[in-house]
Write a structure and sequence with these properties.
Helix content: 25-40%
Structural class: alpha+beta
Number of strands: 4
Number of helices: 3
Low-confidence stretches: none
Order of helices and strands: EEEHHEH
Largest sheet: 4 strands, antiparallel
Strand content: 25-35%
Number of domains: 1
Radius of gyration: 14 Å
């Protein structure tokens, strides 16, 4: 994920390249109760895949493309 803007509450709008290497989706990352993947690996002993899933629990899909995201802002 690559942050592109921040909202007044400190949450991030990001490009998410996880499943979209050439054309990233746009997602909303809510920072409340969010932990980093490394913390899940170190402190909770989760596997890499389990830690990735837990770290992404505060990430919400917004739009398939940046253009679609911009169009949503206009409407």
């Amino acid at each position: 994920m690559f942050p592109i803007t921040i909202d007044p509450a400190g949450n991030l709008i990001c490009f998410d390249y996880k499943d979209h290497e050439d054309l990233p989706a746009v997602v909303f990352w809510e920072h409340e109760n969010a932990e980093e993947k490394e913390m899940y690996l170190r402190e909770e002993g989760l596997t890499e895949q389990q830690a990735e899933e837990r770290a992404r629990e505060n990430i919400y899909y917004v739009a398939e493309t940046f253009t679609e995201f911009l169009n949503k802002l206009h409407n």
